[in-house]
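On clarity, I found the account of how folds are encoded harder to follow than it need be. Since the whole study asks how a given chain folds, the encoding of that fold should be made plain. For illustration, here is how one protein appears when written out as sequence plus structure tokens:
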Amino acid sequence: MSSAQDPFYIVKEEIQDSIDKLQSTFHQWENSASDPGEQVHLKKELLAGCESIEWQVDELDKAIGVASRDPSWYGIDDIELEKRRRWTSTARTQVSSMKKAVLSGGANGVGTMSASGMRRELMRLPNSHQAKSNQYAAAQDNDDFIQSESDRQLLLVKQQDEELDELSASVQRIGGVGLTIHDELVAQEKIIDELGTEMDSTSNRLDFVQKKVAMVMKKASAKGQIMMILFLIALFIVLFVLVFLT
């Protein structure tokens, strides 16, 4: 991603402009010792400006922290992250120095660095400074990037919806197969119950037949004994006649 498309550089340029204005106000405050009323007014303005810039730098630091979790996704590397951290640290130091100087009532806390030197230090990041005339184009490029990311997210959501639809169809098919298996099991259970009933009925009939057979066998045994006795009596009579009458 080029610096023109990177939101970091857009915000950085805005902060840099605020720092430049703050430095200008600071120099006015240094030269207003002869006008206490103006000096008090400029002091309030400087303190408010310092608070605002410190807040912006803190927010930029938070964004850098988010980018450091997955630098490749944002198209940057560890070296670039370190340079960005160094820039925010330098900006915070410069603003803090001016704030301390204002609160202490003198410029000793600012040090000997000139305004141009401070700007060069703050703008040391390669390819970081951009002319104001290019800011609109940079903002437009940033909007295009955001739109591109939005389109990509919408495409991902659409793909996820399609996958969910396919998963839902698969679940419905599996549910249909489950219902079919359930119906088959119910039918098999019914057949087994009917077979059990028929087996009970057949067992009862078999017991009845066995009892009948036992009774027939018992009756047949009694008749056989009677016939044997009659046969023996007849044989005895025949032998008696043969022995004693012939």
